[in-house]
Amino acid sequence: MNINEVMKSVYTKLQSRRGRRYRHGVEETKWYIASFPEPKDDIQRSFFQYKCQKWETIGRLEFILANMVSLILLFPKYIRYRKRKVTNGRKYDAVLTMASLSNKIPRDFEGEYVSQEFDRGSLSDDDVKLFKSIVKRYPFSFFFIYKIMCRLASYSDLMKRYSPDIIFSAAEYSFTSSVLTYYCEKHGIKHYNIMHGEKGYNPREAFSRFSRFYIWDEYYKKIFLSLRADKTEYKVNQIVVPDIVPKTGINHCTYYLQLHTREQLVIIKNELERTKMDYHVRPHPLRANGFEDEIFGKEHVESGNVNIWDSIANAGIALSQDSTVLYQAYLAGVRVAIDDVSDPTFFRSSEERGYIMLHKPHLLLSELLHDK
Asked: Quick one: pLDDT at residue 7?
């Protein structure tokens, strides 16, 4: 397990303990994002995004830990990247930085592509010059420096290995995005981003920039611009819905879980019982806590091996707080219900942050309860 996987694991576990809560309200977040000057370049743009993430999502203890671990690993990883030699391979029109992007490639792309995860990297002399210029500007932001170095090394490796014209990412949530866009464009390569997961007014995505950004709905452009993401080229690339036939006339719902605490899962179970409907719950892919079988009973827990579109087709009603699956269900013609009961504070926050499904046809869980 590499450091990025360790950080992700730690964050997920902390998030499951903390529950689905924002540290700051919408008005305070707007004030904080507005307090930054206009970024003078992409390096500063990435640093501003890093500061927004640190402010909103990283607690003091996690931040200290991330900096300490990054400082320890920085020099050994740098030496490793410098020693690594890359052999030029076959040229592809595009590289996908996540294998899962293969079924999300924009319809206007017709070339050949290869998928390559971030499992290797190298740094050329020119890469080192760029990296050192970043270190000089932010010498004590070790986590920022470390992650930038790792992503630069990965992109450098992809460019040398495949000589692509385009690199597709799904990383609006990464503070490395603007630096990587600069790096790609410096080498004559387009850096295109494909929207990853549901979005609302969240400072995690503030200040990001890409050569082109593919979004699911024109609605999201307003959200990203309000977060001071760059006024880049936004193109709608709607989620492709397979040819499915949703089941109708069934007294059933599927609740698509997210990173809930144990206590929140118990509340969700009680609310599902109050609907008097047959139900299943589908754990989040990260499955942060493992309490689902114990709390809901195995007979109510849908396996992650079930294709998500098959799950949606059989849901009857797709239910969640603000899962991406609700938007997918809406596109597939399946009824959607938003949980406004189990965590009223989070529901109000979703309203304030512009959750898209509150602006599409939907039911509320409170309307489905039989013992109001």
From this structure: 55
| Other residues' Cβ atoms within 10 Å of the Cβ of residue 208 | 27
3-state secondary structure of 116: coil
Q: To which residue do tokens 């014209």 refer?
A: 165
Q: What is the DSSP letter of 94?
A: E
- pLDDT bin (cut points 50, 70, 90) of residue 66 is confident
Q: Using the predicted structure, report yes or no on whether residue 57 has a pLDDT greater than 70.
A: yes
User: How confident is residue 59, by pLDDT bands cut at 50, 70 and 90?
Assistant: low
Name residue 363's beta-bridge partners.
Answer: 337
Query: Is the distance from CB of 152 to CB of 81 less than 8 angstroms?
Result: no
Count the neighbouring beta carbons within 10 Å of the beta carbon of residue 28.
Answer: 13
Q: How many CB atoms lie within 10 A of CB 331?
A: 16
The percent of the chain in helix, strand and coil, each rounded to the nearest 5, is 45, 10, 40
Task: Please write the tens of the pLDDT for every residue from 221-280.
Answer: 999 999 999 988 999 998 889 988 998 888 999 999 988 888 999 999 999 999 999 999
Cα(369)–Cα(301) distance, integer angstroms: 21
* Residue among 220, 206, 138, 222 at smallest CA distance from 174: 206
At residue 13, the pLDDT reads 54
Buried b (16+ CB within 10 A) or exposed e, 252-284: ebbbbbbbbbeebbeebbebbebbebebbbbbb
Digit-coded pLDDT (tens) for 129-143: 999 999 999 999 999
Paired residues of 193 in beta bridges:
169, 213
Angle at the Cα of 176 from the Cα atoms of 49 and 38, rounded to 5 degrees: 40
Whole-prediction pTM? 0.89
H-type helices in the chain, by residue range?
3-18, 26-34, 42-56, 60-83, 125-137, 142-162, 177-186, 219-226, 262-274, 292-296, 308-313, 324-331, 344-352
Residue environment code for 101-124, b if the CB has 16+ CB neighbours within 10 A, otherwise e = beebbeeeeeeebbebebeebbbb
The candidate with the shortest Cα–Cα distance to 257, out of 279, 237, 230, 284, is 284
Contact 310, 282 (CB under 8 A): no
Q: Are 240 and 220 in contact (CB under 8 A)?
A: no
Q: Where residue 6 falls among pLDDT bands split at 50, 70, 90?
A: low
